[in-house]
């Protein structure tokens, strides 16, 4: 339980860490944004392919993997349809903290819930490597997300300090969701395999629906591709070091 809380806290704090450059920069170049997002995508694909999915099969079998994976994709798809993705960095026309700003914050709250559940399910598994692996991969995704949200809030006339605090609040929802996921999987052991597969489906949806298109839409496809591979290999080396 303590490991799950610590892991989810570190993952949530990555969102806050991503907002730290807010105090030093006012914008992020498209090239570096694409490179960072592609690197994150590589980390998440590696965690799903070499960690979550094989462990889900070991825990509950191939049927559980199929059901959980599809459920994770469907849940994220429904979230995206209910609260569509907003390109918060490029929306520079906002001049006041209006309903659209609130919508973005609510969307990230909801978006962070399955990420927190993924961390909780992973730490409930018998695989000691899986929890840290998922926490690192989600944390890597949270860092650019935190910076982009902070910049958006600044463009909405929110002070740097208040933007930083709002980013921190959106991150902490992951800790709560991780605790829920951990207890659910711990008390109903048969849920672990489904939960791990759900986490893989949710993360793969984020990669394919959000991260890859965002990293390949501004003319920097080649460096983004290399960054993706480096991110994938980085997670492989990290998991090897933990093993």
TrEMBL record:
GO molecular function: zinc ion transmembrane transporter activity
Keywords annotated in UniProt: Cell membrane, Membrane, Transmembrane, Transmembrane helix, Zinc
One Pfam assignment: Zip
Source taxon at top rank: Bacteria
Principal subcellular localisation of the protein: membrane
GO CC annotation, single: plasma membrane
TM region(s), chain numbering: 6-24, 36-56, 62-80, 101-123, 129-152, 164-185, 191-212, 224-242
Keyword Transmembrane assigned: yes
Subcellular location as annotated: Cell membrane
Membrane-topology annotation of the record: Multi-pass membrane protein
Family as reported in the entry's similarity comment: Belongs to the ZIP transporter (TC 2.A.5) family.
Protein's name in the database: Dihydroorotate dehydrogenase
Protein source organism: Paenibacillus antarcticus
